[in-house]
Fold each of these.
Amino acid sequence: MAVYEQTYKQYLGKLTPEWSRFLIIPRHAFRDVFKSKLFTAFFIVCFLPLLVEAILIYLHHNVNALSLMKVNVRELIPIDAFFFQTFVNLQATFAFFVTLLLGPPLVARDLRNNALPLYLCRPFSRTEYVLGKMSVLLILLSAMTWIPQLLLFLFQGYLEGASWFVDNLWIGSAIFIGSVVWILVLALLSQVVSALVKWRVVASGALLGIFFIPSVFGEVINQLFFTHWGNIISLGALMKNVSAGLFGTFVRTTSHITSFDNGIEREIVMSEPPLWASWFVLGLICLVCLALLSRKVKAYEVIK
Amino acid sequence: MAIPESIPTQSAVRNPADFAPVIDLNDLSVQFGKRPILQNLRGELRGRAIGLLGPNGAGKTTLIHTLLGFHPPSSGTAHIFGRDITTDAKQIRSLVGYMPERDSFIAKMSAVHFVRLMAELSGLPSEAALERAHEALFYVGLGEARYRSVDTYSLGMKQLAKLAQAIVHGPRLIFLDEPTNGLDPPARARMIRLVREIRDSGKANIVLSSHLLRDVEECCEEILILKDGRLAVYCNLEEERKANRKFLMLETRGDQHEFAAAIGALGCEYALSGDTRVKVVLQDGVEVRDLYRIAAQQNIQIRRLSYKRDSLEDIFLKAMENGHGGL
């Protein structure tokens, strides 16, 4: 059918499978996102730590290069769980900034322009819409967190040998689970903020606020009550604990302090909240986000 | 109600649902909180173009939204092409196109990109979606402006872009909610022409919601008038027009009593109005020339003869006065 045949015609061709339609949203979104040279440059910068990580792993196994540089990298930076955890955390920070740039306008733009009825009047559900919008972040953040990290883990396993790889498979699962939990929380929170605040700048500010304001309050609680339970409201601290738990570096009792109460010396043990509590709060945050999204993502909002 | 001349098909093989009414309302009620918005709507609509009329707040848009599955019915249900709106919502949405009343578009997208995205969401593969996006935009008259961002469009162009996204996937039923809102006369005429063209193609049924009687009168065969969320009047405009075509108003000079009696002798109903006017309902087999013949025989001058029919405005105003009616 050509454009000069200007008549109304039905479409009788084949249709795409329903399950794959949510992926249409990220496909179109990426086209817009990478139009911005600034964002593309930033996204490339996000891969620099991974390059450093790859070089370190390579040098570890290249005796010639080590002797040329006259350094013993193997002793300085051991390739172990802590090594991978450090880079996972570094990439998580970059993931946060990518979310800050991409997340806020995703739903807000559609709400501001009343586009939701256009999506939802088609064979496309609200769940698929949210999944599609989240996929924009999930795919991009995956591409800069767990996918390259796992490839580097495989690279290390290849260079070190099969026995190291088998013995340290749990590091691979820690990289995967830790990164996926983080990007899932980021994607959900940014979607909620985007759905609640229609203006991009305000939404970005709100997203920053969600991460930093509770952290400040948590620290105030820690200082006032000689505890670390204030970390339970800090997303950064929660993720740090969860990540440490996954990589086997979590220590509950971090320090002891001595206080004098009516002249009596008392030793206070400063303990992090237990791991289950961190997981529980993260799960709760995700549930609240889903509930809010289900409330806000509607074709039309009914004001009762 | 008459069975439509052609029921649109999507494939060569028809299933029984293809012969079902376009819209079948079964005691459909919708409540927002405790406030009833639609109350016990009932009836079968089979026309190629169905007009939804009513004053502001009558429930026209809510009815469309409910049929699209945006609002759940509080009781009763409705069927579109035989599919239940509560259980087969996704199936229904693959058969319909929707042009919302309010400005609706995706920002920072060219029209062709926007319409293509909408086609893909309806299930068209990427290449077919792009091809049909171009066709739809040419069809509605935005061919030359299709690479411009929708944000930069004028109001009339945005309305056309909304129409393009509603028809890009070739739906069997198109909901048009106030399609001529905010359009200048030429743009309105263009929109009405497009709606009539789609209707006359016989490949899609149209539900046109408007508070502008002229738009509905020009496009629709069946009308549904809502008042306070209730069905005030159902009317088949085509049948109404045919029925009223034989209703005549004569202005005469001369002895109209004898003239009226002679008309009565032909079997026509008549009524005298004042000294000069005679209202006549022509019977089958009686032509206007018969009236002229009788007038000539009785030396009566027919100074004016006009077909009188209820305009949509009359029907609408009666509906607003009378309240509730049904199919």
Note: Chain B is about 35% helix and 25% strand.
Amino acid sequence: MDWFDKFPHMDDESLRTLKKTIDEGFRSFTRAYGDGIEDLFTPLKVFLSFTERLMIQTPWPIVIAVILLLVWFASRSHKVVIGALVALLAIGYFDMWEDTMRTASMIFVCTILSVALGIPIGIWMARSDRVQRIINPVLDIMQTMPSFVYLIPVVMLLGIGKVPGLIAVVIYSIPPMIRLTNLGIRLVDKDVLEAADAFGSSSFQKLRNVQLPLALPTIMTGVNQTIMMALAMVVVAAMIGVQGLGQPVLKAISNQYFTLGIFNGLAIVGLAIVFDRATQAYGKRIQKHMENQHG
Amino acid sequence: MADQRFSGIRINGLYKIFGSHPEDYIDAVKTGLSKTDLLNKHAHVLGLRDINLDIPSGCIQVIMGLSGSGKSTLIRHINRLIDPTAGEVLVDGVDIVKMNEQALREFRRQQTAMVFQKFALLPHRTVLENTVYGLEIQGMPRSKSNDIAMRWLERVGLKGFEQRYPNQLSGGMQQRVGLARALANDAPVLLMDEAYSALDPLIRVDMQSVLLDIQKEIKKTIVFITHDLDEALRLGDQIAILRDGEIIQQGSSQDIVLRPQDEYIANFVREVNRGRVVQVDAVMTPFQLGHKVSGPTIASGTSLEEAAQLLCRWPDGEVAVTGANGERLGLINLRRVVEAMVCFQNQPLNGLAGATPDSGAQAVS
């Protein structure tokens, strides 16, 4: 009854060989193609460095003015704008302006990337049940796999730095974008789609005139969720060399600097609240026409 | 008018079976497999069986039936939102069943427009933007399509509402937008799928008047689906009654009311206000020379109700029914008119059935 008390497992020797073979295979793949893949991501790196420099080197009053203007256009709400102003001033006053700008630029690029990749994938998924069946479990893995685990191959391929950090953040934050685009399109009223068909819409016309506009509120929720998840990854990304608000937090953990940790943590929260309120208010505003239902 | 040479719609031997393998059962259905047997033994639903319909250009064809009778399925075959299992649908002489995707899209853009029961407007677009939708799909520049849309919005009584969103309007007004959107397309075929069923009765009658009024100008070929016999009788030049996917009677409103094909239709007809539907032609006696005629004349095609109002002033005399050129077609008196209005049996009316101008009642078994 030995097998009953102790789980019969693969023998140690074969297990060791299995792990070694996979590791070596991946390592040689990295050696062979690592540089090529790194080159592939160069444009991303350039873009990321550019936005970072832009946000840090521009004098702070201008940056604040631009952010407040964007927040105003998104929300059209004095309350949200004033809240954003207070948060940004407090961040600057406690000397976290530069790190905050680094993180914000990172989140900005990550969001653009997630939207640019997530919406087409979401559309593709909405159009075919088979694609949905394949992509859904992949998204489940992306969301539940501990982020440290997929940091390993990313770092092996691309080393330490901004780009691998960005990739890790995008992997973690893109699933809600894809899922909510898919959901939004699938929830579009069948009657309206039939009307579009009856008037002879091509499938692109249906997408542009009916599906995307009607799915837009749901897609905006996806953008909001993506930003929130990206912010949650800031500290993890800092472990592989992404500068910004995450690094002081790491430093605080290893040295037990309680106040440093709290300050930077609160700065992340502040940034999150500004982004969240602005995008949510925008999402609500574009649904205005759905309201004041006539009896 | 552009659609003057439009030759109407013709549906021949149309069958529709819903299910995973409809083609396996089509032959059995053609040779008489019943709807119940098809469902119970083969788990397929018979949607339509052997539909034959000839809709002349410029005519309002009403297709009437209760829910589940297949009427919405039938209308969706005319622009092929549903593909038939067998049969052909000729619109202006072209069989749309054989069209490829691109030809079908072009056909829908140019030849048909549709009005829906649940309006199916785009909630994120204003009334004006909704109305130009069909034209936008055709690729018409906005400056031109806006003019057309504004004209139709004004025609259906929505001037001043162009910039509202659909959700800000009442159901009746939303359906006016649906109607304007369809009319703006200027397609020869107008498909109306229970277009007024979701509206309350007064608005419904109002919208029927709007449609009849506009139809006088545009002379489109209209297919109108309804479950309401009063609506069918009011609008239809031709009426087809559908039950369980089969046409059980087709003909003019006179035919349906005066000569119901079976008990099912007779039950419907019993509730109808005959005075408004039946025309004097159906109850007049043939005119004979030397007959003594007094008082006014009544035009052929007048309803019994109107005739009764006129005849109240001549309660005892015989009055002549005259045709379009003033020729005397027959004689009528108050007694016969009232008798026809309140009498549910057909006997006194059948005597002159052959004299009605549109007595081409054909029954489809």
Note: The domain at 275-354 of chain B is CATH 3.90.1280.20 (CBS domain Like).
